[in-house]
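Incident log, structure service

09:12 report received: a user says their structure output differs between two submissions of the same chain.
09:20 pulled the input from the user's history:
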Amino acid sequence: MRMTAYLLSAVATAAIVTPAFAQQATSTVEAQASPSQGTANASVAGQTNAATDADTTRAASANAGIQGNASDIVITATRRSERLSNVPIAVSAVGQEALQNSGGSDIRSLNQLAPSLLISSTGNESNASARIRGIGTVGDNPGLESSVAVFIDGVYRSRTGVGLNELGEIDRVEVLRGPQGTLFGRNASAGLINIITRSPEFDWHGNAEATYGNYDQKRLAGGITGPLIADTLAFRVDGVYVNRNGFYKNVTAANGSESRVNDRDRYFVRGQLLFKPTDTLSFRLIGDYSHRKESCCGAVYYNQVETTDPTPNAAGVAPFFATVNTDGAVTNNTTNRIVDILRRQGAVFPLAGNTPDPFSRDVAITPGQTFRNTTKDYGGSLQADWDLGGATLTSITAYRQYKSGNAGDVDYTNVDLTHRAADGNAYRQFKTFTQEARLQGSLFNDKLDWLVGGFYSNEKLKLVDNVVFGAQYGQFAACRLVATVSPNAVLQNQNNPGCMSAAGRATIAGAFGPAGGLITSALDRLTGGVGLGGGVNNVGDSGSIYRQKSENYAFFTHNILHLTDTLSLTGGLRYTHETKKFNAKFNNNNTVCPIQQAALAPLTQSQSGATAFAQGIVTLTCTGNSSPALNALSLNDSFGDGEFTGTAVLSWKPFTKLLTYASFAKGYKAGGYNLDRSDLGGVNGVLTPRTNADAPGLRFNAEKVNNYELGAKFNTRGFTFNVAAFREEFTDFQLNTFNGSIFVVQNIEACKDSLGGLDSDNGFNPVTGAQTGGCPTNRSKKPGVISQGVELEATMSPIKQVTFTAGYTYADTHFRKNLIGSSTTGEPLDRALFLLPGSQLSNAPKNVVTTSFAWTPDLGSNGMSGLIYVDSRLSSDYNTGSDLAPEKKQDGFAVVNARVGLRGKDQAWALEFWAQNVFNKNYIQVAFNTPFQGAGSSANVAAYGGTGNALYSAFLAEPRTYGLTLRSRF
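09:34 re-ran on a clean worker, output below:
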């Protein structure tokens, strides 16, 4: 498929230099000058025979503009070409010019234009996550599919992060809200982003642009389209090149580590052929290739306050040893023992004390380590449209490959605790084949518009990992354990075995009585030393491989019955069958792990005063089941799942300009496997060797949703107003959480019985691993996540050159109380998630307001015009972490973009000055527990007492950027 992309681009490039190029070029009609939204249903407009989506949209949108409402563009969200005001689903549509004005080159820019959408990225851009109405999937674990699916030209992309590539010339982007399945090949539980690129045309047109901005940003883009054979064969080729310095400065750059992090160095090319042998048959062949070689993604320390409970509380009582901070008192300490350990090991960051400086955008990378990675995304598709007379047959066949490197200094400090080396043994790769077929038409004098279809996909996911404990990990882990006994630095000596001074060794041996010798010997093994071996340093995985193969087939139908001229009933049904197969092979050399497991078994497998500390030693030695004992295993598992989903919509137009509707939809997202060895064996799996029987424990359930909506849309000349009220009920909601050491995946469900607060206590038996808060399986099937609220959207064009848009989303997206971790097992909610019951979901602000203003005044009578454009997004507070730790909170903020420019006649040329994040607002995308660096948040201390010393880092949003763009269209 990479060769296909190259060949198509070569064909198009060759065509550029043909004599036909001398023909007079005519300007195209822009599909849309401002973002539009719609939630409606009415009659279906017939699609032009054998025309592409983009063809139909441009023609019909131009007609809408002539009629006085350019916001009512034509979209294909229902697989029928319809005006936005006549679509039976909640959908926002953004045209090419609106996205361009907002500064968009990938789907992240949609945040400014669609209030119900939030897109963010974390440790790698392939980990991007999209949320609609507060619902989405954390992208760091590729075993989880996205709740919000991404389609480009009808082709499903395996994960949201693939959509962060350059898009080239687009026609429009449609954001469909709520579960999808009866219209698109791949089903999605929360929504869908549908990107339609510009198709080839039979007239000569072209575009070119050059941008220069701060951070030495350079961007070149261009495209050309025209006929190869008049009215029969047309081509299009688009290309983009971007280079920019990173937003972070690495203050410890040495031994090959980069000096700037989060830079841009990418290019993209797409070639297309449109073949129309007859008026009733067309073929659209697309090949594209994207290449990125960038340093991504750095993070900064965001919170480093150590908290303690100043008042004593009663000790926990067997068998679960739950504790309670009876008065909720919390004290902030002036120092953090974890920070002090890192500083003694030579850390530049975190800074001394308890106050970080995240927005200096300075980072410290371990010399010799890097965030540089190469990402390649390429593939091809063939769409065939055949008008059979009474029906139209559409087929889309596609194959894609995506490979993204995953190297990184993932402790986010220059102290070498853990990293993934850039040796080619850390990456994720998707190979995806999809086939979709649809047959649609009308019956009974257009009273019934019917559609039936089928979908097949075969996806092969390969995750290769080389994560290791770094050269200073053993020393750090031992010092952290010693500091757990007492933060008094006199007990530590990082140059001694076990990080113990003479006084420290005596203190620890005495603290654990008869077990003291076992404890101090285990600490010695962590650091290593003379006669002790190398310790837990520079050991871990080297090319361990996880594979997940997914095979999916589905049949669907979507039909609209026009009961009267003003009343319509839509019904859709889908059956999906999913099969997934998992296997893993490990290559690990952490030989200290099995020694610690065996030596400390007398303490970890029976209850005593030394149990918790001994388990802490084993956990830090073997974090994530890092052990050579895994090498002999051959983990395999598989499952199959089938599900019926569907939709029903009743819509009524009481008069021409007003549409009302009520709808129900049932959605589904397949289950899968947690591609993280840490979950093998469950809660206490790290304490003992693992077996092949542990493989099914990595499995998680399918996510399901019932969605209810009421809506209305008013549409008149120069003004539209839409309102939609919704309620979504999710069962087995798939939640992926990083707790500072490992990824935990659970299906969030509610128990029908009251758990009496046991879903938010810390009850845990350290020997058996049993937790409080389980639910009988016959009472464990109640939606655990609710999203409900109201969406308001308006567009006003008082005069031809002026357009205002505004959107407001209120989304109460919350967890219910009495939560459990699975509907099928009734297992307790993981203790790290104790803040979830009754709380708002992460990355789900309750209130979001978006606005935009565009003015394109005529300047004189020679065809010149100006451009003044401003957009904004105002968001209320929200938490950015899956566990809702208060240290991960983002306060409310506003982001403003602006653009001013001059344009020649028919936009033959344009010069624009632009700024993104005009007021340089500092805010974060996601905060997270910094790996291995402490445990417990202030919320843990407030609830249970004790000490919380976890350090938190964050992936920052982009600072202010600005620049100048020169573009031409012909």
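09:41 both user submissions now match this output. Likely a transient worker issue. Closing.
09:42 reviewer note: The longest strand covers residues 635-655. DSSP finds eleven helices and 53 strands in the chain.
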